[in-house]
Prior knowledge:
By secondary structure, the chain is an alpha+beta fold. It is built from four helices and five strands, in the order αββαβαββα.
Amino acid sequence: xxxxxxxxxxxxxxxAWLAALWDAARKVRVHAHAPxxxxxxxxxxxxxxxxxxxxxxxxxxxxxxxWCAETSALAAMVAAGGRRVQAVLVVGEAADPVTPCGGCRxxxxxxxxxxCPIIVADSRQLRGRFTLGQLLPVxxxxxxxxxxxxxxHHSGALxxxxxxxxxxxxxxxxxxxxxxxxxPEAPP
Length: 188
């Protein structure tokens, strides 16, 4: 069964975020590192602040060590301070629509609710529209541990401390003169 999206990018009924996600996923897909499968995938996620974060698949000769485009996009979102996925778009070229793999569905579940739209496309057209709940029904998620998807209140994230780097003051880059302290003693 082929699902037809309500609107293709460029049509009047399309939400602005859809075109932004599709454009970002197509652009990042060309940077995929897929020398073994030759199956390049791009993904983009929309976060709770309306920002788009893109990622591509990165394969590794030790096959299990590679990662998917959706994982890369989620990592970019978290690194930028995003905590909640509002929508996902995946671009891949195949006879059937390319949906997130099982592992990526579970990773998306950490940051997205069941009703989060998951849109799949190729470089020419949108191929399908699902919700995360349709792709991963009856899933285990943060609510089983007393949290909501993307909840930063209990995420274990480090709180800003005096002298600590923040988004407005990035941490200095580690180089040969930087001392990294990993033990219990305080830095000098």
